[in-house]
Automatic annotation (TrEMBL):
Domain Peptidase M48: 150-280
Cofactors that this protein relies on: Zn(2+)
Highest taxon, organism lineage: Bacteria
Protein name listed in UniProt: Peptidase M48 domain-containing protein
Organism placement in taxonomy: Bacteria, Pseudomonadati, Pseudomonadota, Gammaproteobacteria, Pseudomonadales
Keyword Hydrolase: yes
Keywords assigned by UniProt, alphabetized: Hydrolase, Metal-binding, Metalloprotease, Protease, Zinc
Length: 352
């Protein structure tokens, strides 16, 4: 089945042809190639990849046709988030930055950032203007965008690898798993099952992302870009993991409902962003880092919490929330944690 037919079968919008919009955003073309290769090679059986023209902000997997789809809306948001980070002046090691400007106010701090990031399609020529002449800043943009898009796609592949599509075989109305900004609430039972699948997909994506990063850095060590990244951003094992945690948190933060403080958390489709980050911290601790003791990793993660918070505050121009982890450590979240722990075996294939 070709991609157009597969999209039609699930009543989704048609494929986006990246060359059609290369004038305003050439990154569709570049990332379509990258993500297609990723999908071809990540699992034992190849999966296809496409962008589609939808403006909604989502990525998903079509199980009947083995196809991962990212909407143009989602890609535009990831481009804009990457460009905000590069423009914010963060990552000061990279030449061509400007003085960070930070003017948070109550209004910008309490509304979901997604509406701001998705107001218009990303325009590369206009939005990269402050740093387009700096090769180093362009590389930083590319690397953040590549990391974000790869995480999103690997997360979808995590659903495939753990066979989450099997539950659709019973003849359900949908054959699609969707990761959507601001989804609806579910029943308690469905919420726990859904959140367990999401955490499993996150873990799969994070582990694979790290493996790919290691492989590429050693394989491309001689190239100018890899040498620059290794010098300025990814000096050692710690820095590499920290960069991935930072980038992935930007994504969690974008997709967060931001109203979970006041809703029944058992009914969410995805755990809140700080809960997802905390889960990746636990995974990092469990996997270990070369030459670091458990206490040292704990210390590193503590600092990383502040880095994630600071970067999202500067990039999205809102106040930091240093109580993020405190909020997801309250008794109702401990109850959620325990319920998920019991749910994981149902959705996990141990061969992955
Ligand atoms: Zn998912």
């Amino acid at each position: 089945m070709n991609i157009d037919e597969a999209l039609r079968q699930e009543r989704l919008d048609p494929r986006l042809v990246p060359s059609d919009i290369a004038d305003t955003n050439p990154w569709f073309l570049i990332m379509e190639r990258d993500l297609t290769l990723l999908c071809q090679n990540a699992l034992s059986a190849p999966v296809s990849f496409t962008f589609n023209v939808s403006h909604s902000i989502q990525a998903g997997v079509l199980y009947r046709s083995n196809l991962v789809v990212m909407t143009a809306g989602m890609f535009n948001v990831l481009c804009r988030a990457s460009s905000r980070v590069v423009t914010s002046g963060a990552f000061i090691n990279f030449d061509g930055g400007v003085e960070p400007e930070w003017t948070p106010n109550a209004e910008s701090s309490f509304k979901p950032i997604i509406s701001d990031l998705s107001s218009t399609a990303f325009n590369w020529n206009i939005e990269s203007e402050p740093w387009q002449k700096s090769g180093e800043r362009q590389l930083l943009f590319f690397y953040i965008l590549q990391t974000l898009t790869r995480f999103v796609v690997l997360h979808e592949l995590g659903h495939v690898a753990h066979n989450h599509g099997a539950r659709f075989q019973g003849g359900g109305s949908s054959f699609v798993d969707i990761d959507l900004a601001q989804p609806d609430l579910l029943s308690d039972e469905d919420g726990i099952a859904s959140q367990a699948r999401e955490i499993i997909a996150d873990n799969f994506a994070f582990i694979r992302l790290k493996q790919i990063q290691d492989k590429e850095l050693s394989f491309k060590a001689e190239t100018e870009a890899a040498a620059l990244l290794t010098n300025k951003l990814l000096q050692g094992e710690q820095e590499r993991i920290r960069f991935l945690l930072t980038a992935v948190y930007l994504y969690f933060h974008i997709m967060d409902r931001h109203d979970w403080y006041s809703v029944d958390i058992f009914r969410l489709t995805h755990p809140p962003a700080p809960f997802r980050l905390k889960n990746l911290f636990a995974l990092t601790l469990e996997k270990g880092i070369d030459n670091l003791s458990e206490d040292e990793i704990g210390e590193m993660l503590m600092q990383q919490f502040y880095v994630c918070n600071a970067l999202s505050s500067v990039a999205y121009n809102h106040y930091p929330n240093l109580d993020l982890f405190k909020e997801v450590g309250t008794p109702r979240f401990n109850k959620l944690f325990n319920a998920l722990y019991e749910e994981y075996p149902k959705w996990q294939l141990l061969s992955n």
